[in-house]
Predict the structure.
Amino acid sequence: MIQPTIAATCPDLKKDDLIVITGAGGFIGGSLTRYFKDNGFTRIRAIDKKPLPNWYQRLPDVESLHLDLSEKENATRAVEGAVEVYNLAADMGGMGFIELNRVACLRSILINTHLIEASYQAGVRRYFFSSSACAYNTDLQKTPDALALKESDAYPAMAERGYGWEKLISEMFCQEYWAERGLETHIARFHNVYGPNGTWFGGREKAPAAICRKVIEAKDSGKMEIEIWGDGHQTRSFMFIEDCVYGIDRIMHSDALIATPINLGSNELISINNLVTIAEEIGNVKLTRHYKLDAPKGVGGRNSDNTFIQNVLNWQPSTSFRRGLETTYVWIEQQFQARKAGNRVVSDD
Ligand code: NAD
């Protein structure tokens, strides 16, 4: 069987070539940094605007820089000498954050705009941009049984206000830098990512982490109730972090995917009610549900159509939601107990 091309087997990438990862103090950027380190890459530069003590994962022998990449000079400094650049930096969070902080989300346009120009000027070989399923036309996602989104569904455009439009425009920058200037770019549209080492409280957490935390809190307090945003019928697919970082690597090193946005998500559709049930089963508890109908809840339904990724890469994210959530639940429970004992944990700013 032909082995897939990944960074570790890519003919034009050496183990001591400089890899730059932005947003590395956050969830996916931190996990991607660990992934490359585990795969034997020896020169990794990790960058985030968060002060270093607040990074979710800080790894030894990784050059870790505290820089705000919405500033042009910092973007130039960030990519000096880089062979590959992975842009995972953005102001982002779950639906509550995205709906109430549209200006902050839109301003992430500055990060990609400066970083891609700096990468072009610096002669970077490959550039990765983390787009989102929020770039898709929201008119196609009104009901819980909405059809899975395929790549062409982004146009005609009616993206999520703020966050989704920023992603769509940054995608276009990536496409035009390739078309007009020859910078090789790769673009993945992530569908909800979850797993250990991500935000689990504080307002930016996404549904899987939030529900696990609420179940853990209910058990801890003995108050056997849970608040659910919306009516619980909204559907989503959720991708486990290990599938996400491997998928980024596959997409970045596929010649068939230059400047071509592609879904990176699970196609296992889960309703929020179902998510609560699975979390309750993992926690071995049954809670009384209260629905907060005026809370931010996003589109009615969203799933990833994986026909394209399956055709091009002969692969798609496959970790079952139950298995991924079990791992996540255990990790959040450890974090919860550590925090309760007065220790500093991930998500503490
Ligand atoms: P995260 O919030 O955990 O990480 C993003 C990091 O970017 C943060 O640590 C933040 O401090 C940093 N950042 C923000 N502005 C910056 C700036 N000006 N300069 C430098 N660093 C800056 O989020 P994440 O879940 O790891 O998301 C990573 C990427 O994936 C983002 O582009 C996000 O939009 C995209 N994405 C994530 C999901 C998901 O479900 N997590 C879904 C779709 C797309």
Remarks:
- The chain has a mean pLDDT of 96.
